[in-house]
Amino acid sequence: MFSKRSIRRRFLLQLIVASASLVLLFSSFLYLFIKQSIYDEKQAELISTAQNICTSKSLITAQQNNPDLLLGLNVELITLQKEENLLEFYVTAHKDKSTSLTLIYPFDFERSSYLRVSRDITATEHLLQKILRSIFLINAFGFVVIILYAIAFSKMLIAPVSALTRRLANMNEHLLRPIQVEHLPEEFEPLGETLNRLMGRIQNFVKYQKELFIGAAHELKTPLAVIKLKNQVTLIKKRSAEEYIEALRVTNQSVDEMNKIVANILNIGRQEGAQLEMPSEADIIQILKKWEGDFALLAHSENKTLQTKFEPESFSAFLQVTLLNQILQNFLQNALKFTPEGKTIIFQSYLDQTDIIIEVIDEGCGIDESVDLFAPFKRQGNKSGVGLGLFLAKSAAEAIGARISITNRTDGHDGTIARLILPSKLYCLLPLR
Prior knowledge:
- This protein is of the alpha+beta class.
- The protein has 3 domains: 7-144, no CATH class; 191-274, Signal transduction histidine kinase, dimerisation/phosphotransfer (DHp) domain (Helix Hairpins, Orthogonal Bundle), CATH 1.10.287.130; 280-428, Histidine kinase-like ATPase, C-terminal domain (Heat Shock Protein 90, 2-Layer Sandwich), CATH 3.30.565.10.
- It contains 8 helices and 12 strands.
- Strands 6-8-9-11-10 form a 5-stranded mixed sheet. Strands 1-4-3-2 form a 4-stranded antiparallel sheet, with helices on one face. A 3-stranded antiparallel sheet has the order 5-7-12.
């Protein structure tokens, strides 16, 4: 019915063992309790009978006081060397399959005489056996009911997982539809949300990979065409040494452009390797201050100002620091590239409720927000570049569970706001010392 790796199989086996042990223990304790209660009652009757006999000093007088008490009773007067006030009970099984309960009760200490009072309890033993069989029969029926309920319950538990499995089995990288988490049980909502995020990343990966291949082919094709055309023109007729040098210079420029493209494509591979690094705990504010020190000098050398404001004082994160550095480096490089001389770049962080937001605000030319700037080889403005920086930044943000955005400023100044949002569920505030 179930394979060896089945969760339901392991669950049912464990439940069967646990239920069988529970039934056995419960039946045993219940039977022992009933048996002891009945035996206690029988022993009390024997003690009461022996006390009446000792008080009356006569079996006939004791019988007159309570005739029914002596029915099925066997009383003997014996002499034993025992301690005073010692009561002794024992059960005897006879050859005729009858059973009797015997009491040794002190009668006359001076003469070391004792009463041996016996009562036939065969009917009681038969009653106890019937009780024992009934207990095990009822518990066995209950055990079967528990197993049937467990089978139905386990099927109900794995129903959402089975539905998710069937849904995912019918998908491929070209047909990914989000899971309706509101239709899932509350316990499975985190799983559905995780799968939706994963499918979103797969969709972006497939989309951007196609654009990356097409863009790389296009970007490499242009400098190659320039090199070929220039060489063909050069070979048409004999030229001077200066003209050959100029042709080689143009060729080298085209080769440099191709090297930039290849280097950025290699960076994509390196970033995928960085995503496999083990996360480590780091103080986000300290990382921001490190980048502040590096880019403040670069901004000053280009007659630009880097203005910083970091809040809170410290913020602990558990993530791949390499990926965070790639995002910050891209934001700051773009801001420095597009900000004119004499202008200011704002580098800041602050808390939004419990999330931390990192922003790099420039005074550049702004962007066309209708264009997907995170797609590979997308460029805006009149500055040189391959167009893979924001593509790498978005991939890095998705890998660490963060979100990034590029929007135009709305405070009356030209420029853009590059924003990185680190979710609160991945981070926590460091205690101040």
